[in-house]
Design brief:
alpha+beta, 3-stranded antiparallel sheet, 3 helices, Ig-like_fold, Immunoglobulin-like, 18% helix
Length: 284
Amino acid sequence: MKAALWLSAWMGLSVVPSTAPAVGREPPETAPLPGGAATPGPRKAPGTEPQTALKALEMSRAAVKAAPDDARRREAEVRLKDAETHYQAARYADALHKADEAWALLNPPQPSNFTVEVDHDGGTTTVTHRQGPPVTVEAQHATRVLAKGESVRVQQGTVLPEPPGAPQLAQPADKARLTLKPSSGAGGLLGPVTLAWAAVAGATRYEVEVVSEAVEGGAAPAPVRSVVAARQWTLPALPAGRYRWTVTAVSPEQGRSLPSQTRRFELAAESLELNVKVKDGWQK
């Protein structure tokens, strides 16, 4: 851990790597930080409460985001999607179980080095994660997981701000079948398709993910992802098939929201109409 890490003891703020212990497992013994402060590992709350399941989701989501784009990550993404579905349906025990499965599947190594910046501005402290695996920020017993490049702002004497609400998807409608002409020069790919959603208060950007639902026996292509500031995104041309998509809101002060509810759509090529000339006229 680099010496650039400071702890804000005056407001009970601490920053620790979040990739060491998995949710639902006993954390390792804590190691001292500069200045004699201890690194508190994630607490395992009694019972399966919403806060416990939410923390498991946050930590597993951060681990998935930091993992390389390979088959293991894609499998972990499926488990994480299941966990989010259970959480939205208030099945917190199932959400915790699936989030822990996603974590265990990735099984990231114990981090040895990370860098965060802690800046004070009057009664406000901002923590920015600059390098290394995801870290957990804790203030007044509330936690937030930060991936590389993310930050959170905390006012003195307050808990971490609540995350922004999940975006509400607008278009296309769920299970819409979109019939399109193949793009010229794009090898028969279909487009354009524009995804749109409602604005989320406090959010400055949105992370969009589109996943192909592979045909049985076929290999699923890598998900299509983008980070945009607008409330819509036009997809690149895609092959015909079925897709699902979600949007996550990101706020510089509140962190990341839960992903939106999943919507699905199908892309199909327009059929060509052929006119054939016969003896008595034209026939379609």
